[in-house]
Every structure is written in C-alpha cells, then in structure tokens.
Amino acid sequence: MKKLFSSIIVTAILSSGAYAINIDEASVKAHFVGFKMAKKLGVPGVIDDAKFEFGKTSGSVVDILNEVKASLDFANENTKDKVRENNIHRTYIANLKNSKIEASLKDAKGDETNGSVTGVITFNDVTKEIPMTYSVADGKLVVKGEINMRTDFNTEDAYIALSTDKQIAALHGKKTWEEVEIYFDVDVK
User: Fold this and answer.
1) β-strand 114-123 against 58-59: which pairing, if any?
2) Contact 99, 75 (CB under 8 A)
3) Which of 87, 126, 131, 178 could make an S-S bridge to 150, C-beta 3.0–4.6 Å?
C-alpha cells in the first residue's frame, strides 16, 4: 500500500510538470489585421516598440496569461507600406483623442493547448473588456481577439475619416470593414 501511495504521488508530481511551458519574453510581437474589399481581404501589420510585461515566463499557460500587461502606441503601426501608413495617420490616428494602448489579460481558462481569456484594453481613453482565445501550437503561444474599430473605443469619427477618404476608398474597393483582428504571439521554448 505504501508503494502504491508513493507511486501515485510521484506520478502526480511528474504529471503536473508536463503541463508547464516556458516562453521567450523577448520574442513577443503585437499584430493586427484590418480588412478591405468586399471579399474581406486581410491587411496585416505589427505595432513596433510594443512593451509586454509577463509576471511569469514559465508554468501553466493560464498562470502565464493571467499576469500579462502591455503598453503600445497604435501610431507605431507597421504595415510595410509607407503609403498605407501615411493614410492611416492622416485619417484614423489624426481623429483619435489618444493613440496609446494599455492592455492586460485576466480570467484565463483552458488547458495547455487552447482556451479563453479576457483582454482589458484602454484605447482612445476608453476601457473595454474584449473576449479573446489562446492557442499553443508550432512553438508559439497566440492570444487573439477582435475589436470593432468604429464602435468599441468611441472611434466612430476616426473610422469615418478612414473609410470615406477618397484615396483610401479607391484602394479598398469602397469597403473598409469595421472588424480588426488583434493578437500577440510569443515563442514557446
């Protein structure tokens, strides 16, 4: 009986370690995907100089995600297209009260491969909770959600300036979608 009990304890200890991951904090990147054209063509970008703070860099995915904070500035968007970036600045960003973003995660639930988490995002001086999902695959932890760039952060004037601009409307086939996919990814060691 003593051997069986010892065996169960050892198995439990080893099993709990099997669900731990390690992340490479230096590899984290903040991404967004806007959409244009009737066929909803994605236009990806990253936000340069995003600062992420992880309370933990190893452990369960849930423990790691519940202690994430980020500071970034949408004015540092990088779409690898200077014309597009200039258009975003002169329309959307020019009509914001504040382009800085503060974010944190809370209420992570799930297992070591996927689950849900709540993003608490402050943008344009408005704070909102955004439902998000996470997944771990192919050496990456990815946390993803969707915002409405017209209504979620009191940004209707900015969205209208972007979507009705003659130059942008021509480039977008007269369709700029309100939904924007937001996500960050970090390498899992």
Assistant:
1) unpaired
2) yes
3) 178
Q: Is the pLDDT of residue 10 over 50?
A: no
DSSP states of 25-54: EEEEEEEEEEEETTTTEEEEEEETT-EEEE
Task: State the Cα–Cα distance between residues 81 and 89, nearest whole angstrom.
Answer: 12
Q: What are phi and psi of 151, to 5 degrees?
A: -115, -25
Contact 74, 101 (CB under 8 A): yes
pTM of the model: 0.88
Predicted local confidence at residue 12, as pLDDT: 43
State pLDDT tens for residues 123-154: 999 999 999 999 999 999 999 999 999 999 99
Exposed/middle/buried for 15, CB within 10 Å: 0-12, 13-18, 19+? Answer: exposed
